[in-house]
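Model it.
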Amino acid sequence: MNCRFKSIPKSEKLLISLPEKDSNEKGLPTHQYLLERLSNHLRDKKNFLRINELKIELDKQGIDYPPTLCAQLLQFYCETSNLVMAKKFYEFLKEKAPSFKLDSVKVIDYAALLIKFSRFEEALDVIQIECQELLCFGTQELLLRSIKKLFSLAVETGNMDVVVKLQGFLLPHANTFRSTVFYEPLVKYHLYRNDFESAIEEFEKCVRNYQVAPCVRTLLKKCIVSESNAVLEKVIKISSSLSGWGKQVALCELTLAFLETGRNSEALKVMQNLRNKHDSGHLEGLCFQLYDQNRVKELLMFLKIICAAEHLDREKIVNNLVKLTDDRNDWKTALALYNCTRRLFELSDDTKHLLSRLLSRNKQKIPVSILQHPVSDEVTPVFIEKDEVDESTTVVISEFLRFIKEEDAQQALEKLQNMKKGFVQSLTLSDMTEFVDLLIKRKLLNELSYIVSAMSFIIENANEIFKPLMDKYSNSGDFESLIQIGNLLPDFSLKKCSFNNFLSRAYILSEKHEDLLLELEKRWDKKNKLFSFQAFEELLKRADLEDRVTNLAKKYLEQNFDLPIAVVWANYITNENYEKANELYKLHSIPADKVDMLVLKAVRKQENITLGKAYISAINNLNARKRCQERAYGTLLDIMVLKGMYDEATALIAEAQGKDINLEKHYRSTLIMLKSSLEREKKKVPFTISSEELAISG
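Modeled.
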């Protein structure tokens, strides 16, 4: 849509001083000359003062702006957050040039500006009317970036209704643009509200219904940082169910998630489990993504980890990255890529020639090693090549693997026992997983404890070897196989693998609730208590076991373990058994902050005002932490505002203020929404919002 104009050599100092009806030296009328200069400045966007001067002069002359220039001004005022002027030019275009095709990027940016200033209904109307078809006059990336920004602003309002409606209007375009951006809003909304469980549920729904995995790396990183191993496994499992994805590609995302959270050794372990050449395609895409985001440092770290896994098509990935840097004339990154990988493998002749030309074109010194191949001491190799494997090693390993395939557990055990430590460590983790599975089937897993070289390898890699099996046994309710694993591994390895969660889930799914409770009762004073938050919740749902579970929670207090009693208390609250909840807190100290999300999830899901008020009353009696109180008041406030209960909401705010609870930090968007609603109904607004900007002058 951008138009090209002839350049005007006249000094810009003469612009404003030109007479109204005079022509410049190119024979252009003054107004046309001014319009052309304004258009040029709007394209450059460097001199805001000059843009305003030109516009003032044009307004003085009473000149109508052509639609193309109006579109440029609309974009300019959106970028400078001037809602008044953006609205003026948008409405001018709709009224005076209804047939003019407006670039969807500008429409979406205008809607984003409306959301920024809490004009939610206007924004929704704009998107619904104007975005039935998406007109992209620039690059697709630019359009997707605008959509992503729009969704992000909507999420930050905390208004789920706005998020859902926006997504509904734009979702029909998802297949056309083949981007996960259209599926991200609700996952991001739940993450923004710190409701991780709902985020996972929404993520799973997208995978199941649309075969896309929105925000998968964000979810993986959140699990890694919070050390939620069971949830991490769940996200990987959900991602792996995508057709065309497969578990290997999910592991590619996991590798980058580990890297981005500073866990390089874990990233390397995952990378070494990527066994197929076709994995390289997705890894290459992730490398390109990092490069496009100008995250060169992370790209180089990621590349080192890729290159450490010699079974991948690392040469192709590096060669294609060098080609990309050449396309963008980025010699610095190209040289960094070369220095990062030159000790690991040989670049193709075409790639070396390309790099040589790129450096030469930018008048940079070409390393001698690009043309020759001397070994340099400057770069420390990331990957140390293995010693040549002799024939006997190959024979021993191949025989071991053959016995596994033939499901001859006894012979496989004997071969493993006779292996040297170096041979054992050359086995792949997936091979060891298959071997362990065979031993469990044959009830021979405990035999592994006598093979020291194998046990040291297994304990070191317990996560990678056992978690696929734990997941399988847990989902099938096979608690007996899990007990075999529990008898083999030391407690610290079991904890690292989230073993308790898997075993508890197996008991629950096999409907062996009482067996699980017996195990918990036997272990109440042990270091590994087998306690699982989710399992305790499930046990409390059984009326016939409730008293025993409650008594067990009280016994745990003797070990200074107070989470179980808090789960019992939260269960009473969510089931509106307030009398029992009161009795419990009178006798015991309840750490409500440890279970508040359990109660608040029920409040939000049911939109239960009564439960929300009861919970506030309970935590006020407990003298809970301020953040816990803030979440309780804020959650109820959200529901009241969404239900249009504005008078009740203002009373709730007054109550919170009376207890010195500040809701603005985390519930600002809800307060703004309430303020707008009260003003619309011409009611008094009995609270203030600091530093608010609901309008801006032109």
